[in-house]
Hints:
With 325 residues, chain A is α/β, with parallel strands linked by helices. Chain A is 39% helix and 15% strand.
Amino acid sequence: MSGIRWSYAINQWKPQFDDFVRREQHERALKTISIAGFEGVELNAGTGRWEPLGNPQQLAANFGSTAGFLAFLEECALGAVSSWFWDPQERSMEHLTGPLNPLDPDDVAAMVGRADEYAAALAELGGSVLVVRPAPGAGDIDPLDDAAIATLATCWNAVGRATAARGVRTALHVDFLSALRRGDALAALLDRADRDVVGLAVDTAELVIAGIDPVAFIRQHTDRVWHVQLKDALAVDAAEEYLEPHAHWTVRVRGGAREVPRWFAEPGADGGLVDCAAVLRALVDVGYTGWVVVESDQSPHPAASALLAGYEVQQTLRPILERTP
Amino acid sequence: MTDATERHIKWSYMDHWRSNGPSGPVDQWHSHKTMSSFLKQIKATGFDAIDTFDFRIWQMYGDYGGPAKYQEMVQDHGLERIVNTFHAADYDLRNYAPHLPETHDFILEDFRVTMGRWSEIKLDNIIVMPATLAYDMEPVTDDKLKHTADCWNKVGEITAGFGVRLTCHHEFFCGIQTEQDIDTFYSYTDPEVVSLFVDTAQHCIAGLDPVALYNKHAHRVSGFHFKDTRNVAGPDDHHHRPDSEIMAPTTGKWFYEMGTPDGLVDFESMMTAVRDNGYRGWISVEHDKANKQGGDYSESTAISRWYAANVLERIYS
């Protein structure tokens, strides 16, 4: 019997800051996720009054309390918020803070405090993983040297200890723009990070775009994989455009020199480069237990993406787990 | 959820559908790829089967090798089969008006040919609008209702010969949509060969209580379209020429998916009635024109099936 639980990421429903703000839109999205066969939802951190699902303060403002939001989830037939994705380098209007930098020791205390807030809410919402962006983009900073790696490790160890105290794991999400993609930075950080409190979030599409085989990655990091985001990739950054400055805007958003219209898609999409079945088999082989969060990102048709992903999970991926003794 | 073999109700999806392709909006028949995407989404939400339209038979033959081959594709996606087909006609007074006996031969021949085309698969119902557009039949007289009933009694015998039940679906804009005319029509038709197909929204728009109507005629009912509406037709809506379904000045969108806010259909009472009348079989879910005014078929399908699974199946399943 597998210990894998299926969740769906809600981020695809909010392409712009003024989209997906109203309660009835959330209700329809959550019901769509539920009827597609998913047990939980992954939230995306955000800030301000147009981000009702972005942080614990906004949940309280919109639903009365975290428990109020949980009741809303349950009314939509979902059982949990599996996880919350948080990029500390995004400002927080609720805290009147700008970007927090994991490479700046002065920001660690604030990051620990922020992570603790998310972890407390997650614990109440039935979740178990705070997914974090562990480092700035490669094009925006110098290559990470030993000192920088040590600073990062110190930061995430502190965050990891704080969330662990709430029963929530901290998982580092290495995206295809990450400074950790360069050289052996990720391996160096994992060496220094406390394996009891810091793990990895494997995002299959981000890895494939970065030229990394997610199956080999899972098998290589067997006991460090604490979270999985399963989504397809439609292009590869073979030209290493991730090293360009401001690559978030010029590469991720604009699509780089090729103006790639869509980097990401739901599993099983036409032209998808991720072998999702092989990923599942690898997770089974290494004994992974925890959430697999299916994502699409950037979907032009969010409900269709969720239903197509649900079909792929029901017909192809979940049976792989069911065949496992 | 009971085991599939013990279920009293199975859910079919009436296959109105639009999606956005690279060249603009397309329906699922655009390509085998768009068909596969449609079928995957229907299956993913937990539907058991699909219904379709009669006029799709040409694409089934032209692009799939016939209804049996098309049904194989449906089954390859985990769905059971095609349950019902909807026979959409133009109801031209010159050749297709059930209240005008001089058009009956044409209608009967249409059904002989139509049923032959479908004969390679097993259908439960062929669904018809039993009358012309309201403005072409009014005033509705007893004679007109008798002629209409006579037409469908003969058609029903033809379809029964192919093992398919003829069933009547009363659009709010058709000539037989008041409670009195519906009652009279069924009193003139043969229960052995003519059935009623209850469309919850259409009856509601026509000002009827679909639950009461169903309870009155339950022994004649061979299926349902479960869909919702937010509007009851005004006194002239069903007279609007040339079309009321899309062009009525009062209402830009008549139909909504089950589970929509502010819906007028009481589905919990409807499902209770389905249970209490001992109905066993298929309920079809429909939300035609879901894409009007910014709607989205995928989302409407998810919401309606969510409602069936989380509300209605707790009443009866």
